[in-house]
Amino acid sequence: MKVTVGLPFYNNEKTLEIAIKSILNQTLLDWELILIDDGSADNSLIIAKKMADTDERIQLISDGQNKGLIYRLNQIIGIAQGNYIARMDADDIMLPERLEKQHAIFIGNAKIDIVATAAFTIDENDNPIGIRDTDEIILKSKKDIFKKSLLIHPSILVKRGWYKSNQYDKEYIRAEDFELWCRTFSHTTFYRITEPLLLYREGNVSIKNYTSSMKTLRMIYKKHSKGILSDVELERAVFKTHLKSLIYQFLGLFSLQYLLTSNRNNSLNSEQINYIKSTILKLKN
């Protein structure tokens, strides 16, 4: 089997069905989809069961417990049968050629371990927002990994053997991917397809969750920047996380948190906007 798609979900009844449909719509056909319920209290499990009944390639796992994303990601790695494992979130949408184009990169480049993609961003109501990560990955040293977000986590396709040797650390909640990139930098080859192959949903993350992610970032900086960042650079990086938390809390008073993350996006042209809208419409029908 070529690809395992791992999709953990928790209370995603509004977006889960279209996320699964986007996987069913892939041009690459040789895949399995592992759906893992993390103790949802809404109708997500009912939706997942309905979708699993439509295709024998879908495996649904539900133990009724809420163990968190990191536990579920490592669980998927442990049971995956595909040669490659694709990350996918329950509120995102794969574009049709995502898996085929990512898989092709591996076939032509044996040294690559992780293939990410660019993404179109959409809001909680499926409205197009922008485009992200359209530049190639150029890492001259480990210091570069601390300068900007390296990969869009749910866009990645990873060699199964690499994943089994490099799993997520449960201590780094809400930044487990960044910690993994830092920890494995010396023996990992990253690659990005600069074409958008994912509709990545952005919205107003709760203040609690955002603050938690900033706290985890500080942990990562302190652990993985030794000998990489100077004392001044480390202090500046840590200060920035505190500042972002304060700004986010202020914006949260007016439900404007999205403004802090919107600067990651470049603007869309009319053709791209129409493409995003038509893609979503087809999956909903």
Keywords summarizing the entry:
Spore Coat Polysaccharide Biosynthesis Protein SpsA, Chain A; globular; nine-stranded mixed β-sheet; alpha/beta; 285 residues; 9 strands; 2 domains
Question: What report would you give on this structure?
Answer:
With 285 residues, the chain is an alpha/beta fold. It has two domains: 3-202, Spore Coat Polysaccharide Biosynthesis Protein SpsA, Chain A; 207-252, no CATH class. Helices cover 40% and strands 19% of the residues. The chain contains ten helices and nine strands. It has helices spanning 16-24, 44-52, 69-79, 98-108, 160-165, 176-184, 207-224, 231-252, 258-261, 270-284, and strands at 3-9, 31-37, 58-62, 84-87, 93-94, 114-122, 128-132, 157-159, 190-201. Strands 1, 2, 3, 4, 5, 6, 7, 8 and 9 form a nine-stranded mixed β-sheet that branches. A hairpin with a 5-residue loop joins strand 6 and strand 7 (128-132). Helix 1 runs parallel beside helix 2. The chain is globular, with a radius of gyration of 19 Å. The protein starts with a strand and ends with a helix. The mean pLDDT is 96. It comes from Flavobacterium xueshanense. One of its GO terms (molecular function) is hexosyltransferase activity. InterPro entries: Glyco_trans_2-like (IPR001173), Nucleotide-diphossugar_trans (IPR029044).
